[in-house]
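Margin note from the TA: students keep mixing up input and output lines. Inputs are the sequences; the output is the structure of the whole complex. Example:
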Amino acid sequence: MSDQTSPEIMIEVVDLHKRFKDLHVLKGISTTVKRSEVVAVMGPSGSGKSTFLRCLNRLEEPNSGHIYIEGVDILSPYIDINKLRTEMGMVFQSFNLFPHMTCIQNVMLAPMHVRKISRDEAYERGIKLLEKVGLAHKADAYPEQLSGGQQQRVAIARALAMQPQIMFFDEPTSALDPEMIGEVLDVMSTLAREGMTMVVVSHEMGFIRKAADRVLFLADGLLVEEGSPEEIFNNPQHARTKDFLSKIL
Amino acid sequence: MPMTTATTAKANTSAKFMRSHPAWMHWVRHPYFLRGTLVALILYALFLLPAPGAPAALADKLNLGVFTVLVLAWSALILADGDRPDWLQSIVAFGLVGVMGWLFYRYSGAHWDKLAAAFFDWGRLSGSWWLLLDGLKVTLLIGLISTFLSVLIGAAVGILRTLGSPTLNLFLTAYIDIFRSIPMAVLMVVIFFALPYMGISFGSIATTVVALSIGYGAYASESFRAGFEAIHYGQIEAARALGLSRWQCMRMIMLPQAIPVVIPSLTGILVSMLKDTAVASLVASPELLKRARELYTSKASPTPLVASALIYLVVIIPLTRLANLLEHRMKKVR
């Protein structure tokens, strides 16, 4: 949608709270994500970064606050969440490919049954996307026949098949062997270059430095610090950020 | 001596599981000892056992007891020894069964010729086979309809339980617990004899079908629940994140993954349901056992009962084999 002005606000989060019983995981998070922006979310384990991401497509129901996607309040009881989720692709830490389907079937499933496009069109789109992630030759393989990195690339293709406006990545490389991380990050970098709006929970410093426009640093359910990767990595302001970065560097 | 890696691996694993043998075990496991005692046992059987017929004297009873214990002990030396080859163990196992059968035949004191005449009096059954086969037809019909209905009920209850609504689950768990606890015979009798007082009455075959469907539906729903619980939660999240509705997720993601898990236990349940159709003779369904009992009365012979047992065997053994085969297949598929 090149005819629209580029710094348009895509996601707006206002004072987001999430509790699991007595555990207050998100204690009021507010931020915005612009169109085509790549936002990395970092933070120590238990900081609520995954929960924050999962609230954005309502895999977790927030307890209070507002989330606007392209101006639509997605927490309103009147919206169709299934329809809304078609605009937001999600990639999981554990891939979650459907084991009883081949790669191409995994990719074709949602476009055919949610978008209701024809089988031929879905197949064509699926093959193109598998080509894009470099796995067209594995179209008829089952997920268990693929390596972790290949599975995650198929999972990215599956999410892209819905032609979403936004992509969420929940620690996409933390379940992978080191030599497979690169192939997944390459696909993600390509997406970022093509102007996809992305929110990525990740600690891959190299990728964040190269591809991310902004870093959110979460600790104890609060947005402690945000800024460009250079600002955060080279000149962190907050003690929690300094402490965390000193541990992972 | 050079040792290949395979032999060392084998030595390691067997060393791990082997208890250290006490000294007497070494000579007990010696081939000469085993052969010698086998010859001694055969001589015992040929010359020292009492005359055929139920043993009356205490000395004879003791004699038989000692012989039995010695045979068992000798077989145990082979059967309990993991290092013995399979062929030897099978020979000893079959031999043991043979010896025990021979002892029973010789010393039980039963009048085998009279028994055979009573239980296997096939001549008396001539002309009445069609009645038993008629009963078999009814049994299979009841089994087929109840299979269909109980799988339907089981799947429906299983699917409803995945919704995770506490109130609904309370009712569904109550249904499952109640109907898994009531014996099938009681359930049928209650439906047939008690419900008519409340204005609900079924015929005898309908009673059987309703009781079996409700009762085994409860079991089947537990298999389905196990099948759904085996699915990783990430599967459902991935499906929902793609925009699939709950029902689409159930149909395209959960059911196809649950069914391979469900089928083995489900076939087991359905086989025991087919056996429970025999309970229907309590409410006078004209099924196989009912027919056999009628013949038992009219012919004054237990042969029809034996015949019905054989018919059940012929029908159900292939089904249990099929169940095992399916279980094997499904394990491979997954």
